[in-house]
């Protein structure tokens, strides 16, 4: 499925948050969105997923969701948003239950997705027993189980330590290589953006405007930490963002 | 540098992190209780507590044992228990229902919160004569009193608990396209359960207070009636026997709710 964001403008009360943002997310592509803090990245993602209505502009979806898709636009949240009273398997089955998938059929699907996310041994664990990385794996498993047409990830790795982040990035790349999915990936971490994005959209400070969209030409599976091409790109991104980030930082002091 | 470290004496870093984490020490409560009773027993025997002030604990125990032997204990406890159970079951289930509705719907909230605020501070005992006129002198008026008394604190605890359910979890449910009913059943209600259960402690305690009040105003059997009789005869042993039964009831319900919390809220850290 392809998404088409057309000149979105959004404000909260008097505060303009997004200004005329237009984007296209092609099928099977991971689009990373980077920008200084408070520039409206999360807002943009909420608008794309239909959790909020934009003031101006619209979001169009083109093409059909894959066969068996239970929830075309599916989020992965920064703070995991797992139900603490449900086990890992219970959290993953939450959406299946609403579609009447139970018993053996549900078990087969859940086992498959827990295998893919390396969670098989943690089926019966409660969220409070899991590390942050494991919790985010569960959230990713919960998103994968609905066979989403587009995954919307809001800083999914920023609550995790650097090593766990690296491992999970490798897992995401492996998942994508196995079965390409479409994704919008919001992050403030440029290393994540150059590692996972096919394209990277840079937003200006608030009100967020589209500054630039960069292509990353290296195939996803070939990207390694320390690759000179990626590092050059990351440096280029930082050049674009540096002044914005500094200005955004100053701005907060005046609010 | 190394000279210095050899000359000056090495001391362990002092520990400063203790305290502020009360934990239940098993048996401490019993010890306090026994000490207090022993003190009263000693005082009444030695004479520095007059018999008119406090009865001897051992006499109260004898009274309780006699009651249990003669079957009078059960004669009084059974009707009280059934009043408490039926009345508070009505009040608590209605309270949880209304509280959830207030937590979910703006119109219900706007309409009912002022009403609940108006009902809450009324001493419900003052309404008993009215309830007697409405429901008769029998059980129904007692049920109604206990039900109303447990209803308001349950409503307040429940809608507070629903308000406090993590909004990101509800957002998550919506983002996965869950039905409204699923969100309420699988996210809102379990999320509100801790708050509802702790409200239950308050509600049941108020229920016990109202139970006794209602029984004092008109009942043949029941712990309240028993205490009233004993009081009017100035029979301190029996009066205190009644009080002991009430405290036991309080401890028992609080323990029961504690067990319920342990079972239902195992997911909490
Ligand atoms: N529901 C809301 N009501 C009012 N203001 C909001 C709301 N949500 C966000 N904002 C404001 O809109 C601006 C953009 O917020 P948003 O969360 O989209 O930024 P962000 O780019 O995701 O920031 P961060 O990097 O901190 O995650 C911020 O100034 C924020 O205070
Ligand atoms: Mg954000």
From TrEMBL, chain A:
User: Pfam families given for it?
Assistant: ABC_tran
Q: Which Gene3D superfamilies match?
A: P-loop containing nucleotide triphosphate hydrolases
Which GO-annotated molecular functions does the record name?
Answer: ATP binding
Give the InterPro entries listed for this entry: AAA+_ATPase, ABC_transporter-like_ATP-bd, ABC_transporter-like_CS, ABC_transporter_ATP-bind, P-loop_NTPase
The alphabetical list of record keywords is: ATP-binding, Nucleotide-binding, Transport
SMART domains noted in UniProt: AAA (SM00382)
Residue span(s) of domain ABC transporter: 3-230
CDD domains under this entry? ABC_NrtD_SsuB_transporters (cd03293)
Q: Which family does it belong to?
A: Belongs to the ABC transporter superfamily.
This protein is called what? ABC transporter ATP-binding protein
Source organism per entry reads Sedimentitalea xiamensis
Automatic annotation (TrEMBL), chain B:
Q: Which SUPFAM superfamilies match?
A: MetI-like
- Residue ranges spanning the membrane: these are 20-40, 84-105, 112-137, 143-162, 204-227, 239-258
Q: Which UniProt keywords apply?
A: Cell membrane, Membrane, Transmembrane, Transmembrane helix, Transport
Family note: Belongs to the binding-protein-dependent transport system permease family.
Membrane topology designation: Multi-pass membrane protein
Record's subcellular location: Cell membrane
Source organism, top-level taxon: Bacteria
Task: Describe the location of the ABC transmembrane type-1 domain by residue ranges.
Answer: 77-257
Q: What is this protein called?
A: ABC transporter permease
Q: Which residues form a coiled coil?
A: none
């Amino acid at each position: 499925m392809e998404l088409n964001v057309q000149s979105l403008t959004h404000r909260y009360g008097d505060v303009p948050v997004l200004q005329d943002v237009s984007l296209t997310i092609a099928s099977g592509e991971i689009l990373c969105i980077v920008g200084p803090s408070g520039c409206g990245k999360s807002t943009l993602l909420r608008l794309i997923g239909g959790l909020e209505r934009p003031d101006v502009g619209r979001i169009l979806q083109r093409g059909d969701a894959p066969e068996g898709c239970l929830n075309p636009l599916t989020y992965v949240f920064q703070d995991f948003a797992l139900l603490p009273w449900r086990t890992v398997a219970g959290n993953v089955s939450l959406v299946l239950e609403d579609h009447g998938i139970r018993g053996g059929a549900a078990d087969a699907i859940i086992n498959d997705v827990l295998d893919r996310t390396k969670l098989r041994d943690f089926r019966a664990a409660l969220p409070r027993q899991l590390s942050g990385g494991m919790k985010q794996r569960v959230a990713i498993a919960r998103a994968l189980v609905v066979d989403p047409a587009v995954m919307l990830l809001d800083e999914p790795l920023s609550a995790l330590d650097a090593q766990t982040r690296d491992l999970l990035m490798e897992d995401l790349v492996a998942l994508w290589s196995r079965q390409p999915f479409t994704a919008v990936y919001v992050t403030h971490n440029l290393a994540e953006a150059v590692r996972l994005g096919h394209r990277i959209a840079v937003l200006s400070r608030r009100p967020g405007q589209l500054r630039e969209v960069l292509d990353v030409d290296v195939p996803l599976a070939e990207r390694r930490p320390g690759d000179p091409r990626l590092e050059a790109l990351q440096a280029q991104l930082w050049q674009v963002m540096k002044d914005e980030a500094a200005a955004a930082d100053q701005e907060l002091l005046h609010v | 540098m190394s000279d210095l470290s050899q000359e000056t004496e090495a001391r362990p870093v002092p520990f400063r992190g203790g305290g502020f984490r009360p934990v239940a020490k098993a048996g401490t409560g019993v010890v306090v209780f026994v000490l207090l009773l022993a003190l009263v027993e000693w005082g009444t025997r030695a004479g520095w507590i007059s018999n008119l002030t406090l009865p001897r604990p051992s006499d109260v125990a004898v009274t309780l044992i006699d009651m249990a032997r003669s079957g009078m204990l059960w004669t009084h406890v059974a009707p009280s228990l059934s009043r408490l159970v039926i009345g508070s079951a009505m009040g608590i289930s209605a309270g949880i229902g209304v509280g959830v509705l207030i937590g979910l719907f703006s119109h219900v909230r706007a309409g009912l919160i002022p009403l609940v605020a108006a009902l809450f501070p009324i001493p419900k005992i003052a309404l008993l004569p009215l309830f007697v006129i409405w429901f008769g002198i029998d059980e129904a008026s007692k049920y109604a009193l206990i039900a109303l008394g447990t209803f308001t604190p349950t409503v307040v605890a429940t809608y507070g608990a629903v308000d406090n359910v993590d909004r990101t979890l509800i957002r998550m449910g919506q983002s996965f396209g869950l039905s409204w009913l699923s969100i309420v059943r699988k996210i809102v209600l379990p999320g509100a359960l801790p708050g509802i259960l702790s409200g239950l402690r308050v509600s049941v305690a108020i229920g016990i207070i109202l139970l006794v009040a209602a029984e004092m105003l008109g009942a043949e059997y029941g712990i309240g009636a028993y205490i009233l009789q004993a009081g009017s005869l100035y029979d301190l042993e029996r009066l205190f026997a009644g009080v002991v039964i009430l405290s036991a009831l309080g401890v028992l319900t609080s323990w029961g709710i504690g067990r319920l919390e342990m079972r239902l809220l195992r997911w909490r850290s």
